[in-house]
Specification:
Bound molecules: alpha-D-galactopyranose
Number of helices: 11
Strand content: 15-25%
Order of helices and strands: HEEEEEHEHHHEEEHHHHHEEHEE
Largest sheet: 6 strands, mixed
Helix content: 40-55%
Number of strands: 13
Length: 390
């Protein structure tokens, strides 16, 4: 059984500081941190002015940096072999390839936003699984951004948190070129321990929803089928949603009702819109059900969400369908795929005493199906971005 632990933050930060000094000759001045996330419900609704309900994970990315006296930017990771180097003028759209684009892109976006940041040396470390649909990219962007705002002398305040989210979104959509919607960056910055974050992308508001799990664990299963949102599937779904918006003559799918959606001429566009409109309602219903501990109803809502993503939005895969079905058979009260889809992870609400049984049952089913061994993690609702002191 592979259980991915979040690591002990103080030990991780110490080791990162040491590795930074070994690599660059001097210790870092600032270490930023930002978490990965798991979305409880509300998928592909963020770019449709809808609702999402993610939780920040205890698994996080740490970014150590030190200002340089020149225009050079060096970006390295304890998880990657390649190192990116370039000048401050070479950080923008189309200029940085690969994973370093998420880090360099935030520096570019914060400079665009008016922060006169200098060249920096940067080293990152992370316990967020990569390619698992748990937003390792937003964790990287926001950890780097938190460190840069500290370097800029402003730190994280109510005002700068919004700027950090915006800069991280620009890094992802403009520098890396992944047409994602903003949920991941929002929860990486605004997440809070013990709560889920209800984000309304129409009004632009975030509300902490305290989670009383009452003897349940949020169990995430990484199918190890990797996804990449810069590839076509995500963008194609987004384009279908835009077609539906045009045909319905509404400002966004948030303003569409299911009756109108059922009248859409194109069968595929109709199914895509049906997923989004019904999913937004499921977020509202899930918040209410969670608040009253109505676990059966949470189970029905997760089940409907999963079916909608599998059949109408067509973003599931056999591994996700298997993880979800087996988790429920083995005692989870609710389970669904989570994140952008085409692989990645599922999330299940499991009575504490059934967690081991669920993990074992999913592992066994994956062996039987001939799938790669999955990994699991406990999604203890944790804090959003910050700076590590000391
Ligand atoms: C990815 C994107 C998010 C969101 C989800 C699907 O995680 O980064 O913006 O669209 O997919 O809900």
């Amino acid at each position: 059984m592979d259980l991915v632990e979040p690591g002990e933050p103080a030990a991780l930060v110490d080791a990162l500081r040491g590795a930074f000094a070994d690599r660059y000759g001097e210790p870092p001045t600032t270490v930023g941190r930002a978490p990965g996330r798991v979305n409880l419900i509300g998928e592909h609704t963020d770019y449709n002015a809808g609702l999402v309900l993610p939780v920040a994970l205890p698994h996080a990315t740490y970014a150590a940096l030190r200002a340089r006296g020149d225009e050079l930017v060096r970006v390295a990771s304890r998880q990657q072999d390649d190192v990116w180097e370039g000048l401050l003028t070479e950080l923008g759209p189309g200029q940085v390839d690969g994973w370093a684009g998420y880090a360099a892109g935030v520096l570019w976006a914060l400079r665009e936003a008016g922060y006169p940041l200098p060249g920096v040396d940067l080293l990152v470390d992370s316990t967020v699984p990569v390619g698992a649909g748990l937003s390792s990219s937003a964790a990287l962007e926001c950890a780097v951004g938190a460190a840069l705002l500290e370097l800029a002398g402003v730190g994280l305040t109510d005002a700068t948190r919004g700027e950090l989210v915006a800069a991280a979104i620009r890094a992802e959509t403009e520098v890396v070129g992944a047409p994602t919607g903003g949920m991941d960056q929002t929860v990486a910055v605004h997440g809070a321990a013990g709560a889920a974050l209800l984000v309304d992308f129409d009004s632009g508001t975030e509300t902490q929803v305290p989670l009383d799990l009452a003897g349940h664990t949020l169990l995430v299963t990484d199918t190890r089928v990797s996804h990449a949102h810069a590839d076509g599937g995500y963008g194609a779904r987004r384009a279908d949603c835009e077609t539906a918006v045009r045909e319905l003559g509404v400002p966004s799918l948030r303003r569409a009702d299911l009756t109108a959606v059922e009248g859409l001429g194109d069968e595929r566009v109709r199914r895509r819109a049906r997923h989004v409109v019904s999913e937004i309602q499921r977020v509202t219903d899930t918040v209410a059900a969670l608040g009253e501990g109505r676990w059966d109803e949470v189970g029905s809502l997760f089940d409907a969400s999963h079916r909608s993503m599998r059949d109408d939005f067509e973003i599931s895969c056999p591994e996700l369908d298997c993880a979800v079905a087996v988790a429920v058979q083995a005692g989870a009260v609710a389970a669904r795929m989570t994140g952008g889809g085409f692989g990645g992870s599922s999330v299940a609400v499991v009575p504490d005493e059934r967690v081991d049984a669920v993990m074992r049952a999913v592992d066994a089913a994956f062996v039987l199906e001939g799938f790669r061994a999955p990994a699991h993690l406990r999604a203890v609702p944790s804090a959003g971005a910050g700076v590590e002191r000391g």
